[in-house]
Amino acid sequence: GRLFVADPLAMNSPQRMNVALTLTAAPPPTALAAWGRNVEGQCTVPAGLSNAAGVAGGYYHSIAVRADGTVTAWGGGGSGQTNVPADLTNAAQVAAGFLHSMALRLDGTVTAWGNNGNGQCNVPADLTNAVAIAAGFVHSLAVRSDGTVAAWGRTNDNQCAVPGWLTNAVAAAGGFGHTLALRSDGTVAAW
Predict the structure, then answer these.
(1) pTM (2 decimals)?
(2) Where does residue 124 fall: left (phi above 0), alpha (psi -120 to 50 degrees), or beta otherwise?
(3) Strand order in the sheet with 91-96
(4) For 98-129, how does the pLDDT look when each residue is reduced to its tens digit (9 = 90+)?
(5) How far apart are CA 101 and CA 80, in angstroms?
(6) Is 30 helix (H, G, I), strand (E, B) or coil?
(7) Of the candidates 35, 18, 5, the residue with the CA atom closest to the CA atom of residue 147
């Protein structure tokens, strides 16, 4: 990636330097609060949930990763989206789609569960070295350490058709029928 550093001796012109992106343990724990429409209990934070380091919200479900790498999900789980896999450990990030959930492990692997009606939980077998994940409505995304993006699930609007020219991605986001990628130079690609 790139890091911009202002140098006061260079008349405030930005200076560029290359930096390596490395997936590390979840950030320090923070307090967790939820509010809004609580139809399925998605705003009722489970008693005892502490040391949250990341959160995501789906249609009627919520998910959190703790600083110790464990994951808790709650709310509407009729499609299995709150049934966290028993073998899920060392999570660094979570994401939630319409009726599915995802977790990124410290080793760069991705796990997905819940409704798989469009293949959104079928993590590609060759997906390794992921550094970020995102969930769209019924599609899933992972950014690899080399800046490429993997996308799977429903692609009726080409939301999983990652452009061949896309490089240097550092983050991704999924919508109902579209996908976005943030590049290391601060530009955004959308498809």
Answers:
(1) 0.84
(2) beta
(3) 91-96, 100-105, 110-114
(4) 999 999 999 999 999 999 999 999 999 999 99
(5) 9
(6) strand
(7) 18
